[in-house]
């Protein structure tokens, strides 16, 4: 009797009980349950409602700046989006790092250690990997990912980069990482993370040990202009000088404005060219101008980097998301059947999509048809560029694709 490779359910509703019951129509004993919930709902009540239905399934996720799924035809606010994933070829380990705001490096190390320690052996995956090594060509073998790490850090802690450094110090940079920072619907008060419980000020790592075809993608909707400046003085996420002048003065000139507002910063982000062989631009969005003439960003900005003013248009934004999704599918080994798609989408990118009238779910359907999708609008995204540079980004989408095929197929 053949095993079913993968079962995936998706649900979304203002009522968490209804959302999980929708998802459980497709699964019986989920291996992993992903929950993205509005911060306007009680996180403990949301978690308890989900836990009651999914039994021993691992539960990960958090609060959002907006959640979405393929389970509803129209956008739904103040809701819970749930995805249940069931497969005999998947094992999951979950780790929690505490005190992210004060000890981010240690938090990353703690979370990933716990995740791998709690991960049970996966002899099925090991056997299929052996079969694949005997029967697949080298290019297919290179795309196998026996491990994948989903990270979900608190989006208000402000230390995603150092958290990532802690994770990478334990597992190296060759194991894929994808994720997004939790939100609170732009209240900027408190966010929550789900990791077989409800937490705050933590960093979550969920490690997937899988014999499924699985891949990640990265993309943002911006292209570079010819305007920019060199960061000549900075610390952490704050730039003090551009081209040896106060950062505020130079930024006003670059953007041709008299005042630097959050709206201006959101619409005109900066880009930094990655140092890998592809030289992709990663996005650094400014958060606010400070009284001392400095500018604080939502991501680290290093001295010596050249900040490029970025721009976009509707066609470019659509094509960039298509390319990110196609890259994720290719990264998964081009499975003929897509089982699930999980998206970590910046809240600022969401606001851009609203202005440009773009719907990611329509784009996904155009490329892969009707596939279960879940995602949330984040306070920052984590993943890797095409050249493998792992980082924390702004105004970006990072994508996880799970194929409804084993790596031996």
Automatic annotation (TrEMBL):
<protein>
    <recommendedName>
        <fullName>FIST C domain-containing protein</fullName>
    </recommendedName>
</protein>
<dbReference type="Pfam" id="PF08495">
    <property type="entry name" value="FIST"/>
</dbReference>
<feature type="domain" description="FIST C-domain">
    <location>
        <begin position="247"/>
        <end position="385"/>
    </location>
</feature>
<dbReference type="InterPro" id="IPR013702">
    <property type="entry name" value="FIST_domain_N"/>
</dbReference>
<feature type="domain" description="FIST">
    <location>
        <begin position="29"/>
        <end position="246"/>
    </location>
</feature>
<dbReference type="Pfam" id="PF10442">
    <property type="entry name" value="FIST_C"/>
</dbReference>
<dbReference type="InterPro" id="IPR019494">
    <property type="entry name" value="FIST_C"/>
</dbReference>
């Amino acid at each position: 009797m053949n095993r079913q490779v993968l079962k995936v359910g998706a649900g979304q509703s203002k009522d968490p009980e209804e959302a999980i019951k929708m998802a459980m129509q497709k699964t019986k004993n989920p291996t992993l349950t992903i929950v993205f919930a509005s911060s306007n709902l009680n996180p403990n009540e949301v978690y308890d409602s989900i836990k009651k239905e999914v039994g021993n399934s691992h539960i990960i996720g958090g609060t959002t700046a907006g959640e979405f799924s393929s389970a509803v035809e129209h956008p739904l606010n103040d809701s819970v989006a749930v995805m249940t994933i069931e497969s005999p070829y998947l094992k999951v380990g979950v780790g929690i790092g505490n005190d992210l705001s004060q000890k981010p490096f240690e938090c990353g190390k703690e979370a990933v250690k716990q995740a791998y320690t709690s991960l049970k052996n996966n002899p099925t995956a090991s056997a299929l990997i052996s079969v694949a090594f005997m029967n697949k060509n080298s290019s297919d073998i290179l795309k196998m990912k026996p491990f994948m790490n989903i990270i979900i850090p608190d989006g208000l802690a402000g230390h995603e980069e150092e958290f990532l450094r802690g994770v990478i110090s334990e597992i190296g940079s060759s194991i894929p990482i994808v994720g997004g920072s939790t939100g609170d619907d732009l209240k900027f008060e408190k966010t929550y993370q789900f990791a077989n419980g409800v937490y705050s000020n933590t960093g979550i790592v969920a490690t997937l040990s899988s014999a499924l075809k699985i891949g990640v993608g990265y993309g943002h909707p911006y292209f570079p202009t010819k305007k920019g400046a060199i960061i000549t003085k900075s610390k952490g996420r704050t730039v003090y000088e551009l081209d040896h002048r106060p950062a505020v003065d130079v930024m006003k000139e670059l953007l041709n404005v008299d005042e630097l507002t959050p709206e201006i910063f959101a619409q005109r982000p900066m880009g930094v060219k990655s140092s890998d062989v592809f030289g992709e631009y990663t996005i650094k969005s400014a958060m606010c101008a400070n009284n001392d003439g400095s500018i604080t960003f939502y991501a680290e900005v290093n001295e010596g980097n050249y900040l490029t003013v970025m721009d976009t248009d509707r066609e470019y934004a659509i094509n960039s998301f298509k390319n990110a999704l196609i890259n994720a599918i290719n990264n998964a080994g081009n499975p003929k059947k897509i089982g699930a798609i999980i998206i970590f989408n910046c809240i600022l990118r969401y606001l851009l999509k609203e202005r440009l009238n773009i719907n990611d779910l329509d784009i996904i359907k155009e490329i892969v048809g009707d596939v279960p999708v879940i995602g949330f609008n984040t306070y920052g995204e984590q993943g890797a560029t095409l050249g493998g540079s792992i980082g924390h980004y702004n105004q970006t989408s990072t994508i996880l694709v799970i194929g409804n095929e084993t790596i031996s197929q």
